[in-house]
Design brief:
- This protein is mostly helical.
- The chain has eight helices and no strands.
- The chain starts with a helix and ends in a 5-residue tail after the last helix.
- Helix content is 77%, strand content 0%.
- It folds into two domains: 4-70, Rna Polymerase Sigma Factor, Chain: A, CATH 1.10.1740; 78-181, Winged helix-like DNA-binding domain superfamily/Winged helix DNA-binding domain (Arc Repressor Mutant, subunit A), CATH 1.10.10.
- The longest helix is centred in the middle third of the chain and has 29 residues, at 55-83.
């Protein structure tokens, strides 16, 4: 079993290399810092009691998984922000549904065609969300609309982080296929 000072010493020695590895992978300094910090926290929280010889391999695996998680989140966010971009405004704090309701009150600023298109697109998305199995819908909404991380979602749903990732992946693929079948390309 490793002593706390051994874990601390290991993290000090790996810090710069891990940052370089993350920055090369994601090409965003802030994201790379977050990835390294999350990886270090996971190592300390979940594997800090392991022998010090296991730290390098464990840390590399955690770092690579955290980078993959970053790309998965980015891909899904990009997918849904594109789908919901028709509802965009200058105020980033508003929900797309609130924006749609506010634009309906504007009247002349919107053409009837654009308003109809937006309401139909929103209805299609909501309809497809309702068709998802409850656990998939719950995981999808928590992760991508409420922007909860995997751990928070797992705690809220009472399941493992792996289950959350599986539910989200299945929901994303199902929604994308259903919307594509209806002519909405993401």
């Amino acid at each position: 079993m490793a002593a706390p000072h051994q874990l601390s010493a290991f993290l000090e020695t790996i810090e710069r290399r891990a940052f370089k590895q993350a920055i090369y992978a994601v090409r965003d300094e802030e994201a790379a810092l977050d990835i390294v910090q999350d990886s270090m926290m996971k190592l300390a929280e979940k594997y800090g009691d392991r022998p010090a010889e296991e730290f390098p391999m464990l840390f590399q695996r955690i770092l690579q998984n955290t980078i993959r998680d970053f790309y998965r989140r980015s891909k899904v966010r990009a997918l849904w922000t594109t789908a919901l971009s028709a509802f965009a405004s200058d105020d980033d704090d508003q929900d797309p549904l609130e924006i749609l309701q506010a634009t309906q009150a504007l009247g002349p600023a919107w053409t009837p065609e654009s308003e109809l298109l937006q309401s139909r697109t929103l209805a299609l998305i909501e309809g497809e969300l309702k068709k998802l199995p409850p656990r998939q819908r719950e995981a999808f909404v928590m992760r991508y609309w409420e922007e909860m991380d995997v751990a928070e979602t797992a705690i809220a749903m009472g399941c493992s982080e792996g289950s959350v990732k599986t539910h989200c992946s299945r929901a994303t693929h199902t929604l994308a296929a259903a919307l594509a079948a209806k002519g909405i390309r993401l």
